[in-house]
Amino acid sequence: MKDVVVVIGPGQIGQAIARRVGFGKHVLLADQRQENANAAAEVLSNAGYDVSVATVDVSSRDAVQALVGAATKLGKATGLIHAAGVSPSQASVATILKVDLYGTALVLEEFGNVIEQGGSGVVVASQSGHRLPSLPVEQNKALATTPVEKLLGLAFLQPDQITDTLHAYQISKRGNSLRVMAEAVRWGKRGARVNTISPGIIMTPLAKDELNGPLGEGYRRMISLSAAGRAGTPDEVGSVAALLMGPDGGFITGSDFLMDGGVTAAYWFGELAPA
């Protein structure tokens, strides 16, 4: 049976990672929108990859379980790339928590039940998770280990506690890295690994929209005051993911890799620091 790499959210970053880790394997591309999966499949198929497509709503357990079933019918599930999500300017607080926080926890749980010996996964989080101040230890543990179906019921995630979409996004992305750390323990019992990448501003169609949107000035300031002085590229994220998912990353699991050109460093200790 062929090894299968599942890509949830095959946008520019998801595709870049798939190009690095998917050759010689079957790549299953899953998106909420069929047309997005089809577009990615055409690009990768034309480049010589063995691909198929599926639709999935990561906020639905039935849908995620159906995707797991499709993957395991194709072969051995040895790779997971979870790059789906919504941004603060795209959705409401409730939707961000449902998709970015609950959805990621759900994907990690369901694929953690079938990941093969030697398998590996990468979750794409965000630099935003690193700009949230430290949380109490009990909140960290709750985000990491609360049963998936009880996650959105946590007291500190209720509407009176999270009133804006940026806060919802930041705590969701912090939750992603914490959840991956906890899941790495469970995945390890199957001989598999999982890590998080927290990118900064990566030049994708979505990033271009953000740069030209109402928050564009803030994003441009982030870039100009960062150490790198530029945005990143999907292929740079792909390179880090290839390390984490490949044999050279065999000693790395439960970790979060911040790659933002120094934006977070400037936020905490430089010119981007809040007044």
The total domain count is 1
CATH topology-level fold name: Rossmann fold
Question: What is the CATH level 1 assignment?
Answer: Alpha Beta
**Fourth CATH level, the homologous superfamily:** NAD(P)-binding Rossmann-like Domain
Distance between the termini: 57 Å
Nearest-integer average pLDDT: 96
Provide a descriptive summary of the structure in words.
It is a single chain. The protein has 275 residues and is α/β, with parallel strands linked by helices. The chain has one domain: NAD(P)-binding Rossmann-like Domain (Rossmann fold, 3-Layer(aba) Sandwich), CATH 3.40.50.720. The protein contains ten helices and seven strands. The chain has helices at residues 12-21, 34-46, 61-74, 93-112, 137-145, 165-188, 205-211, 216-224, 234-245, 263-269; strands at 3-8, 26-31, 50-55, 76-82, 120-124, 193-199, 256-259. The chain is globular. It starts with a strand and ends in a 6-residue tail after the last helix. The model has no long low-confidence stretch (mean pLDDT 96).
